[in-house]
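Tokens as discussed.
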């Protein structure tokens, strides 16, 4: 379960950011997870909840998963599109020469603190 390692990295970022801003309690953490990042949101929440107990600053926080769809731009006709996970073809011209814009994210996008 590689979500455990990802949860530890996310928590490290959250603790650093919260400490740098003098936060007393972290209420929620929003993580942007691209659909191509192959991260299981439920497993990540489970791992986050297991680790957060060790840190009073985030022990009460909730992890919110912001699932980012796979989008891209066609290099042939310039159309932007949303793709399903396995099949990146332009729906306008059928070209496979598409450049991904989103879908590979794995970041903390928001931290709500008191
Ligand atoms: Zn196209």
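Sequence:
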């Amino acid at each position: 379960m590689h979500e455990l390692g990802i949860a530890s990295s996310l928590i490290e970022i959250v603790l650093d950011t919260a400490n740098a801003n003098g936060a007393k309690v972290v209420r929620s953490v929003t993580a942007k997870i691209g659909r191509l990042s192959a991260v299981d949101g439920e497993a990540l929440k489970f791992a986050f909840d297991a680790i957060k107990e060790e840190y009073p600053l985030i022990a009460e926080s909730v992890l919110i998963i912001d699932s980012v769809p796979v989008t891209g731009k066609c290099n042939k006709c310039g159309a932007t599109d949303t793709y399903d996970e396995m099949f990146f073809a332009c729906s306008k011209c059928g070209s496979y020469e598409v450049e991904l814009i989103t879908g590979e994210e794995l970041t903390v996008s928001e931290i709500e603190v008191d």
